[in-house]
Design brief:
The chain is α/β, with parallel strands linked by helices. It has 14 helices and 25 strands. It folds into two domains: 6-22 and 236-433, UDP-n-acetylglucosamine1-carboxyvinyl-transferase, Chain; 24-234, Enolpyruvate transferase domain (UDP-n-acetylglucosamine1-carboxyvinyl-transferase, Chain, Alpha-beta prism). The structure holds shikimate-3-phosphate.
Length: 435
């Protein structure tokens, strides 16, 4: 990732309309699932961020033809469940946990050998959580530290054994990995999560003609006898990208921001609920659906916030937004406590530590807890030099902090935003200039 340094200065006001880029999670799934479908699909508003481009490159190495039909308009020529071929080189997933975990599920069902690797951050992230259950299904999976860390090598098997499995953590990546492996299993795959993680894979599989049943807290799926139908769709705007502007507008004293075409799947909108509980002025309009996903416009204006406590089922619904919630809490009256968020330690960076350290550097009253954060609001932030740890979400959260801090906030390794939001810096300038 490019070692760009960005300087952010306080904005006098924030005004404007933003169309956030295509959803990262849905873009990955649209590429992978359509690759396994029987025939051609057109995917509009596909996110051209580094993570999703990594998925596309891996699919090409697996023999899946795809091409751009225009900016953000992708055509995938699905090869069918049985049509992938052995990759001639390691599959480089770069910084993308979604790529490595979802592809591992697919590769577990292929009668060939493949290697999955990624950048230094990805090679530190836990893979035992997929290696274990995939082995139970009959795939051979090797990796550093007994399969705990990538590079991973997978020798798949077909059919896999159907699995009944309780996920130890709520994780859409693990759930999706096992649902994809379930497409190659000889019976019913049954999964149970401790909490509700994002359900994009289930929705997309359903839209492609695969029955995914949800009953008594269990998800179940069988290999479809007639394969997957290609699904052409427009990818909704990414709620996690819109979230930066939602928080910016809520905490800024002179702000009015409209976000259009944003995915508002309830398994993703925990931050919206949390901000509303804090007293934020957020309005939804133009509610519709796209590709089986709810979409809406979101208007946010300057708000007076109060601290809240966040725990339990809310946490997986705002898992990627905890650093932003911590920033919002710095501008709230009273104390905010987030608990049950230990998963943040194994994201692109240790986001609990990084958030506490970097907001702390800016002067915030923030404490790192074992499984969360405690923030006391009402202290003015002061610009200084901060680090992104090469983590896209950290870089963007710190940039929003910079809009509110006094003086200059200098963000190291700011090029990390290319992972999920290539237009981020341009949008920030535009909103801050009030156009
Ligand atoms: C994602 C799932 C989440 C999230 C990540 C994207 C996905 O990770 O943090 O940014 O696309 O499935 P986990 O499933 O590991 O919680």
């Amino acid at each position: 990732m490019s070692p760009v340094v960005k300087v952010v200065r306080p904005a006098r006001r924030l005004r404007g309309t933003v169309e956030p880029p295509g959803d990262k999670s849905i873009s990955h799934r649209a590429a992978i699932l359509n690759a396994l479908a029987q025939g051609r699909a057109a995917v509009d508003n596909f996110l051209r961020g580094a993570d999703c481009l990594a998925t596309l490159r891996c699919l090409r190495l697996l023999g899946v033809p795809w091409r751009w039909q225009g900016p953000g308009s992708l055509v995938v020529e699905g090869v069918g469940l049985d049509g992938l071929s052995e990759p001639p080189a390691p599959l480089d997933c770069r910084n993308s946990g979604t790529t490595v975990r979802l592809l591992a599920g697919v590769l577990a069902g292929q009668p060939f050998f493949s290697v999955l690797t990624g950048d230094a951050s990805l090679r530190q992230r836990p893979m035992g959580r997929i290696a274990g259950p995939l082995r139970e299904m009959g795939a051979q999976v090797w990796g550093r530290r007994g399969g705990e860390l990538a590079p991973l090598a997978v020798l798949g098997r077909r059919p896999l054994r159907a699995l009944e499995y309780r996920l130890p953590v709520a994780s859409a990546q693990v759930k999706s990995c096992l649902l994809l492996a379930g497409l190659y299993a000889d019976g019913e795959t049954r999964l149970r999560e401790p909490g509700p993680s994002r359900d994009h894979t289930e929705r997309m599989l359903q839209a492609m003609g695969v029955e995914v049943r949800a009953e008594d807290g269990w998800l179940s799926l069988r290999s479809p006898s007639s394969g997957l139908r290609p699904l052409s769709l427009r990818v909704p705007g990414d709620f996690s990208a819109a979230a930066f502007w939602m928080v910016a507008a809520a905490i800024h004293p002179d702000a009015e921001v409209r976000l259009v075409g944003v995915g508002v799947n309830p398994t993703r909108t925990g931050l919206l609920d949390a901000l509303r509980l804090m007293g934020a002025d957020i309005r939804l309009s133009n509610e519709t659906t796209s590709g089986g996903e709810p979409v809406a416009d979101i208007a946010v204006r300057s708000s007076s916030l109060r601290g809240i406590e966040v725990d339990g089922e809310m946490v997986p619904r705002l898992i990627d937004e905890v650093p932003l919630l911590a920033l919002a809490a710095c501008f709230a009256h009273g104390e905010t406590v987030v608990r049950g968020a230990r998963e943040l330690r194994v994201k692109e960076s240790d986001r609990l530590r990084a958030t506490a350290r970097e907001l702390g550097r800016l002067g915030a009253d923030i404490e790192e807890l074992d499984d969360g954060l405690r923030i006391r609001g009402g202290i003015r932030l002061q610009g200084c030099r901060v680090r992104s740890y090469g983590d896209h979400r950290l870089a963007m959260m710190l940039a929003v902090a910079g809009l509110m801090a006094t003086g200059e906030t200098v963000i190291g390794n700011a090029g990390a935003v290319l992972v999920s939001y290539p237009e981020f810096w341009g949008e920030l300038e535009r909103l801050a200039s009030g156009s």
